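Q: Structure for this?
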Amino acid sequence: MMFKCFIEVGQVAYISFGLHAGRMVQIIDAIDQKGALVDGPCIQVRRYIMPFKFMELTDFILKFPHSARPKYVGQAWQKADTSRKCAAMGWVKKIKARERKAKMTDFDHYKVMKPEAGLEPTNHEVMT
Amino acid sequence: MKALGTPQKYKKMKKCSGQTVYPGQVFKKSPLRVKNFSIWLCYDSRSSIHNICQEYQDLTTVGGVTQCHGAMGAQHHAQAHRIQIMKVKETAARKCCPPAAKQFHSSKIKFLLPHRVLCHQHKPRFTTKRPNTFF
């Protein structure tokens, strides 16, 4: 199996647990073997050092110089339309669907079970 | 040979042994910029005393010193009570010596995370599947 994702400046990472879990941030600079400086200016995540074990790498790499200011990091994010691309990823969609399913009420379960009743479920999982 | 000063001695400040230099909070200098800290320290090993200089990359001095204490404990088995930090100084990247510090100074840094060991070892605690380490 070929390694495709590297820790590099501009790599978009998904935070799997810890502070800001479930969000996408950019790697600004690698500090040492344990962690990197990450920033998410478009999602109000302040710059901080995050250990590598809390992050999962995605396929997106943005273009900005190492240790760039939040303004330029945010511009690179918007220019590459990364929010939309990240939301369109298969595993991100599955995570969101799982979250919505967990929030389903009993009434939502009924609505999904009986679509002929014509009631639109509010927190439903998309049945594909 | 015992270490020259112990933490208990530092905490006990009598009026005659020191003076107030500044009565306010000392704020972190630039907590969003990555800096290289050179830390000069004197530590007690099991047989003798050594003076060394270590270099770490971090956002703040506090973080750098915390890393230093951790590394000294791991590499030299020197606990905090056997370490005296003599000087902490922010240095420029080009003045750093050890190759371990210099390898992270590249502006085009790029490396893999191979064989990612499972973090949630107890979720689930019992399983029939081997964990996936490639992601």
